[in-house]
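BUG: 3D viewer hangs when loading the predicted structure for this chain

Environment: internal workstation, default settings.
Expected: structure renders.
Actual: progress bar stalls at 90%.

Input used:
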Amino acid sequence: MPTPTYIIDTSCLTQAHRIYYPYDIAPSFWDFMKQHIVNGDFVLIDKVTDEIAKGKDDLANWMHTQIPSSLLVNCDANQTIISHYGSLMVWGNGHAQYTTLAKSEFSEFDNADPFIVATALAKSAIAVSQEASAPLAKKSIKLPDVCAEFRVPHIDTFTLLRTFGFTM
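Structure tokens produced before the viewer hung:
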């Protein structure tokens, strides 16, 4: 059985940087992430790096200097991802539970969440985020709930770290 691929959400990196694993405390975390991105175990999509770049902080700098752009999945250039994205948009916009604003935010072309699910579908991969499921939410469409709807496995960062035996 092939080793699964993991699609990394923005929240995995931003929360690690801001809360759990700042560079000065946990450089081994960042080395671990880079190693697995370079090895292809962890996939970064361009939409995630674009979201991080908006922060113009140390994390954006790390992404720019440590992760070659050639390793990023260009979502716009992958027809399979775009096809799955279209299915996600039909689902999200047709879902009566969510407010118009929630649907609008989900549909923004620079929102990484639907592209993470679309990429996971295209690659038969596992989505990794720090978002919590909120199946009754009306004001936002949560990544874990989209994953559940489309039968994409979803785990959090700590589960990912345990899966790979990461320790500090």
